[in-house]
Amino acid sequence: MDNKQMLMIPGPTPVPEKVLLAMAKHPIGHRSGDFSKIIAELTANLKWLHQTENDVLMLTTSGTGAMEASIINFLSPGDRVLVGNNGKFGDRWVKVAKTFGLAVEEIKAEWGKALDPNDFKTLLEADSDKTIKALIITHSETSTGVLNDLAAINAAAKAHGGALMIVDAVTSLGATPVAIDDLGLDVVASGSQKGYMIPPGLGFVSVSAKAWQAYETATIPRFYLDLKKYKKSTDEDSSPFTPPINLMYGLQASLQMMKAEGLDAIFTRHQRHTNATRGAMKALNLPLFAPDNAASNAITAVAPLGVEAEKIRSTMRKKFDIAMAGGQDHLKGKIFRIGHLGFVCDRDILSCIGALEATLIELGYEGVTPGSGVAAAAGVLAKG
Amino acid sequence: MDNKQMLMIPGPTPVPEKVLLAMAKHPIGHRSGDFSKIIAELTANLKWLHQTENDVLMLTTSGTGAMEASIINFLSPGDRVLVGNNGKFGDRWVKVAKTFGLAVEEIKAEWGKALDPNDFKTLLEADSDKTIKALIITHSETSTGVLNDLAAINAAAKAHGGALMIVDAVTSLGATPVAIDDLGLDVVASGSQKGYMIPPGLGFVSVSAKAWQAYETATIPRFYLDLKKYKKSTDEDSSPFTPPINLMYGLQASLQMMKAEGLDAIFTRHQRHTNATRGAMKALNLPLFAPDNAASNAITAVAPLGVEAEKIRSTMRKKFDIAMAGGQDHLKGKIFRIGHLGFVCDRDILSCIGALEATLIELGYEGVTPGSGVAAAAGVLAKG
Asked: Residue positions of B in the annotated binding site for substrate?
């Protein structure tokens, strides 16, 4: 149906009407006093969302631009880094790190499984000369719905003492606690079209004091993504280059909404939706791709048996106007992914599960008991 | 007056209501067939605006990101390049080029004067070994309102034969002909918040076949700004990374408006507004900062005598809700700049001149004959 699409993909995520209308305001000059006030408000609220006193910088980039900035500002060619790789975005970290000449040691896990913190620990404990300069990992692996054990991997980095902890939190920030200050995360990259509830076009990077120290000796050249330029301007409630003014109007509205809801309530809501979605999949005999103990709060990946994932997606789209994501790379056609990240309410979960049930029945999927998925989800949602 | 501001700065420029409302549409998935159609339309219309069959690529960056991409994809550390520098954005070219290790030879002119094409010609003619790899210039120098002689400088490059012609057309594209194919310009960078009539957040780079050849041997590392990734995706009506969907909705609307107006009409309108504005300044005895034979069609810089530029700007802003730009760097407080770029109609020019006259009278500026500025502007506008 025209104009009726519902996004249940991991980005772009649903955008509140308040945000859409805020973005339709006419831009003002980005060097004006009025815009400085907006930058000051955004910076304060971003620190709140990031649970940190570190700098949180706004870049005009996608999430990948924020990832690149997180590497090139703090490392030098030849630097030894451990890079977690258990999905498409771990793989992207590897590619970025290799592009800029880092000595990459990949810590791998099968797609759909979590990284093993002991793999990091073993290498870090053996590194008595402190040659490892950074650990680089993806927190929530969007391609598989796996949540890596950030706290455990970070603990290994902290025991080592020398390595920076660099994290892609693109689909965890705003969905799952990313306790930057409590854990001591050095560099955290994210993107706007995810938990921030606004369209794509803004990247975010938080930077610790330890990372700024590393900046001073890092030699990879950078200009547009030179984070010191952003810090200097942000400290003056300004921006080094022309910022995406209208997206920032949207961000202003979305952060105000998030503050009104509260961080704990936001995280609880995402956890509830994850539990409801996973409970429904189990009731529908649909195999979950990520294990219960490593499930992302942003996205649930499902590997259906006996019915094609792409047929499920196309039926959901055509008949019920729901967009779900497919598998990426070698998982194409093998899984579908339900995004429940950002501006998603309990009703949305029931809508999606209800439509999925109807789709499975239409496609002749055996083993589905009509109503069982919605009932399981409703049971979880009822607990609040 | 609240909500009443009129932008006469060189960016962000005024945005049509159609564009603002297009940006307020809910995003759809950027990997969907419907979005592919939008990318295909944008790409075709961008080629029309750029007057080229070359690739025109869209980046999620400010104009500076597009400038950096224009250098790092086609050159290698140590490459000898001639960089024109007669203002803040020429200076930015120098900084970017030096950051990435190029052997920069600056061709300078005083701020407010145009680059001398002979300065390039002399060096190029002496370069029998073809060691010069690129000429890098700013077409319309936003900081001073000077239009550099692109055709003459480009002719020197063409006579040399070996050097790439790399151009910052940030405030010329959409205001002044940038005849990429007719001239054979290799790399042209621009940004959305200028002649494109949309807010900031998108950068554009056009790339010639000769530049793609240079790409193959260029060794500066790049990932997020790797233009080959953008070309590969654009050829498939897609994008390598998540694009700024809502800004692209806006661009779709603005390019449709521009096509309806027609390229010649757009350029004629900008020329008329430049002539009207400059005529008015002369009638008001306000010294123009750029000479008549090197005047940008996007922006008119004025160096008032006997009255402070910043007082003029603040009165215009407070009393008439018109935002004009000030001077940058050493020109701070010495000039003001009137932007007449993008979505500007004849009425806007009269509004601005009328308010400026009133402001000058209020500030006790001697030598202003009430009505003379508006009369001069109206005289030019009457000629159509």
From this structure: 337
Structure tokens that stand for B281 in this block: 């300044």
Q: How far, in Å, CA of A7 to CA of A337, rounded?
A: 12
Return the domain boundaries, chain A.
17-260, 262-382
Asked if B223 and A95 come within 8 Å (Cβ–Cβ), the reply is: yes
Strands (E), chain A: 6-8, 55-59, 80-85, 103-108, 132-138, 140-141, 146-147, 164-168, 187-191, 203-207, 299-302, 322-326, 336-339
Report, as an integer, the average pLDDT of A327-348.
97
Strands, E assignment, chain B:
6-8, 55-59, 80-85, 103-108, 132-138, 140-141, 146-147, 164-168, 187-191, 203-207, 299-302, 322-326, 336-339
Beta-carbon count within 10 A of B116 CB = 18
Assign a CATH topology to domain A17-260. Aspartate Aminotransferase; domain 2 (3.40.640)
Work out the average pLDDT over A253-280. 98
Q: For residue A250, which of B369, B250, B338 has the smallest C-alpha distance?
A: B250
| A200 Cβ under 8 Å from any chain B Cβ | yes
Taking residues A285-310, report their average pLDDT: 96
For residues A52 and A206, the answer to whether their CB atoms sit within 8 Å is: yes
CA distance A323 to A303: 17
Q: Give pLDDT, residue B150.
A: 98
pLDDT at A384: 80
- The tokens for A354 are 């209800």
Q: Does the ipTM surpass 0.90?
A: yes
Residue A367: pLDDT band with limits 50, 70, 90: confident
In tens, the pLDDT along B171-206 reads 999 999 999 999 999 999 999 999 999 999 999 999
Give the pLDDT score at B96: 98
Share of chain A above pLDDT 90, in %: 99
- Exposure string of A111-123, with b = 16+ CB inside 10 Å and e = fewer, is bbbbbbbebbbeb
Q: What angle do CA A141, A181, A231 make, to 5 degrees?
A: 90
Chain B (42-71) residues lying within 8 Å, Cβ to Cβ, of chain A = 60-65, 67-68
Overall CATH class of domain B262-382:
alpha beta
The C-alpha atoms of residue B192 and residue B22 are separated, in whole angstroms, by 15
CB proximity B9 to A under 8 Å: yes
* Cα–Cα distance measured from residue A186 to residue A352, given in angstroms and rounded to the nearest whole number: 37
